[in-house]
């Protein structure tokens, strides 16, 4: 198992946001994590990469515990996060953004070429500042920057957020293509339909807990998914 | 001496002092970008650089003494970061800024005890007090050229470092987006220490080259800190290259103020600039309103 989370609890200050979550991701899979706003998805991801210290529970990458490591060690476990809101270095060029992504990668110059081949649109903008790119281009850049670390596993936090439907589609297509790099994907999304269409398995999260898990195809037809996706009120209103 | 010669003389003395303010302002910027702290002990690094070099120059050749002083002060800067700021990171930025003011006072008092209150200076790097060169009709001490040359080298070095080396890019990444930098595997705590090392080293270097002209005194740091701060704000906080423009402007305006104001009021110029900029254009000449400004405090 590439990633294993056991009974993870964490939060901010005295407020617990994630209430004992367990999940796993096997090599080569695309695993989705669905849930509405405030479900604790981003908090969970922050704990996975070390930006937030877990209160309780374990995080294992390749069987090795990583929950006491600082965030900057995360990429050396071959796990890279594409954060919510893309977090591009706005005042640095596209090329510099990519090079920073490969900070610990001795072959970063070579890998920049690889990323540019994958995302030709970035190649056209290589000397532009990251902040001047469109939302979709920034998402590609964030994806490319994460790939620069040569990760075995990519964690994606709402990559389709704020993108036009066409652009979102393109981003999801790129995520599917990651499979041929042998990169395992843990995809956190609100867009349940698009996620389940490309995922192998998925978890559904609500108010800090996993309420459902299973094969993507099964979940596609599950009412609880619609509920989680649309928020708690869905049940009372629609069922 | 004709009117135009006088203007040239003012101008040269202005950019000489201004280039030192520029180095202090660069130091402000480096630390501010990497840590968010305004380091009011920045001027003490300049003073310490001069003082240590003066002491070492008694038994070491001048270039060695200067180099050793720069290294010593750079390491001291890094040590201060490790001891005070790394551990206290969870406190608010305002606390940390106040700690820098405290450090500035402590360093000053320590310098008073180590070196007493006498004014010292390094010997001229080339020539002596009376040797002068003629530049466009103005008499210039060769040391002025040393100052301008050194500052130019510092600026170019910094530009190349920040723009073309991986470590420099990582430092910019840390100030641009600390979380994203962490996720890329950059140890930002170490980058913060590096920013202190660099600022302290550059300040010490400025303190050495300026010593023969303005002399080194244990109290010189606080004045420099205020002027460097004015320069950094004038240029636009967060941009080391804008600091150069700010520093030169503050220096030149200060020099020319002598022609209209009594000489005792030269220091007022820097404060007037500082207040004016804060009122009218808090993001500085080259900054953007959306970018960082001192308003955050």
Number of strands of chain A: 10
- CATH class of chain A equals Alpha Beta
Q: Spans of chain A of 5+ residues with little confidence (pLDDT < 50)?
A: 233-239
CATH H-tier superfamily of chain A: P-loop containing nucleotide triphosphate hydrolases
Query: What number of structural domains do the residues of chain B give?
Result: 1
Please tell me the CATH architecture of chain B by its name: Orthogonal Bundle
Unreliable spans of chain B: 291-297
Q: Helical region count of chain B? A: 11
Major beta sheet, strand line-up of chain B:
1-2
- Proportion of residues in extended strands of chain A: 25-35%
- Give the largest interface pair and sizes: A-B, 27 and 17 residues
Task: Give the CATH class of chain B.
Answer: Mainly Alpha
- Per CATH, the architecture of chain A is 3-Layer(aba) Sandwich
How many structural domains of chain A? Answer: 1
Characterization of the model:
The complex is a heterodimer of chains A (239) and B (297). Chain A has 239 residues and is an alpha/beta fold. Chain A has a single domain, classed as P-loop containing nucleotide triphosphate hydrolases (Rossmann fold). Helices cover 35% and strands 26% of the residues of chain A. Chain A has ten helices and ten strands. In chain A, the strands form two sheets. Chain A has a six-stranded mixed β-sheet, sandwiched between helices. In chain A, strands 2-1-4-5 form a four-stranded antiparallel β-sheet, with helices on one face. In chain A, a hairpin with a 2-residue loop joins strand 1 and strand 2. In chain A, helix 2 packs across helix 3 and helix 2 runs parallel beside helix 5. The C terminus of chain A is likely disordered. A two-stranded antiparallel sheet of chain B has the order 1-2. The radius of gyration of chain B is 19 Å and the shape is globular. With 297 residues, chain B is mainly alpha-helical. The C terminus of chain B is likely disordered. Chain B has one domain: ABC transporter involved in vitamin B12 uptake, BtuC (Orthogonal Bundle), CATH 1.10.3470. In chain B, strand 1 and strand 2 form a beta hairpin. The chains are: A alpha/beta (239), B mainly alpha (297). At the A-B interface, helix 2 of A face helix 6 and helix 7 of B.
